Amino acid sequence: DNGYVLSAGQCVPLGSCGCVYNGRYYKPSEEFWADENCRSRCRCDPSLGTVVCQETSCKSNERCVIVNGAHRCKATTYSTCIGTGDPHYTTFDGKKYDFQGTCIYQFAALCSEDPTLTPFNVKVENNNRGSKAVSFTKTVTLEVYNVTISMSQDHPRKIQVDGVFVDLPFSHQHKFKAYISGVHGFIKTDFDLRVSFDWYSYARVIIPNTYANGVCGLCGNANQDPSDDLTM
């Protein structure tokens, strides 16, 4: 048809055509490292119909590695946030505090406008159990790549993806995987975000330190300063 071309085996509008670079196909607007040292960052520009590259490098706290056959920058250090018990929180920066709210809260999410960071949002729902004086984590939900993954006390040892229970282990387009290890359910993304829940009260988020000072929520901002973790 007029105005259409064959791209990755499908007829697509000319402006939606992908690119071929060094014998490999890339989707429109897809970004990738073109060299083994992560010093040339490229993008398939659909408006030009070609790959455009610029010199850059991994951040100071990253190293260049191969993941699923492609080069990428990977963090060398990580920060952990925990919510456990009724519930006691330990932020990414190590600040400990208690919070007894019974609602849905943002546990940790990307709040930076850094275009190199993948957006995500981890939410927790707390509820009362026996006493209204204390609350416990009931549900942990991760929103990433336009997909919602959740683990709930109501459904022990089960994980839902967009509201549907999935067979475990489960993977989604090499973007994330969900699985059980011991008493915990785990979600791990391709950018090394890790979320876990024991389906009772123990929730944990681990972020690569490429997200340092770029997150917000109950877990704080991961800027290595615990004194500002409870500020908005």
Automatic annotation (TrEMBL):
Key words, A-Z: Cell membrane, Membrane
Domain VWFD: start-end pairs: 79-232
Superkingdom as given in the UniProt entry: Eukaryota
Listed PROSITE patterns: VWFD (PS51233)
Localization annotation: Cell membrane
Gene Ontology, cellular component aspect: plasma membrane
Pfam family, one: VWD
Major location category of this protein: membrane
PANTHER family: ALPHA-TECTORIN-RELATED, PROTEIN PRY2-RELATED
Entry protein name: VWFD domain-containing protein
Protein source organism: Chelydra serpentina
